[in-house]
Amino acid sequence: MKTPWFKKSFGAEYLEIYPHRSASEADDQLPHILSVLELKNGEPVLDLACGAGRHTSRLRKEGFKALGMDLSATLLREAGDRYPEQDLPLVQGDMRSLPFPQDSFSSVINIFTSFGYFDTDEENLSVLEEIHRVLKPGGRLFLDYLNPDLVLKNLVPHSERKHGESLIIEDRKHNRERGRVEKTIQVHKFDSLTGSATETKTFQESVGLYSLPQMRSFFDRASLPLVDVFGNYDLVSFEPLSPRMILLGRKPA
Q1: Which of 23-27, 109-113, 143-147 is the least confident region?
Q2: Taking the model in full, what pTM does it have?
Q3: What span, in angstroms and rounded, lies between the C-alpha atoms of 12 and 171?
């Protein structure tokens, strides 16, 4: 059985591929996130697909009982290494089956397109259903997703860039049959003294391209009706070519 791409693509190289997803970016984003979550100080928050823990750390500094969960053991170790003084509570797990009791969290955040990874609509819906289960009545979900129309309009089939001693080559395509955007990433490492290639690793990414009506249907089916939809972290209203599709759902009280 073939190993899914998301079980292989979130190792140490992920941090090279997306270096702009930094702690300073989280510092900029969090005030906007908190402004719509309606949280009280000290309430429990789940940072779902937390990666290297940048939002988990920031939430805990703000006084919330934040917990980070991710499938990648490598990124969770990185989170512990980056914020040793906080001893972040971190859990490894699959978002389709959250290892938490019902009504555990006042809010859930899911940042930087960590939705749409799975092959079927039902699997992706199950993520929202699990979030509904672990949210307290009246709890909110802040889900930061791509804008599929903008992604397709600006799709760059091929790009190359340097990061440190690595050359990163990315090839992108729209799989119309599957309704997904797919990316192949090659990370070529070079010896800093000789300039010769020492290692090449290849990764895949594949994310479902769901429109706003489709996402609204998912949220309704998971009993997380949308409260609002924003186009970026300034929380302006979503438009056809907004940079992001940020969805705010609420579990009925």
Answers
A1: 23-27
A2: 0.94
A3: 20
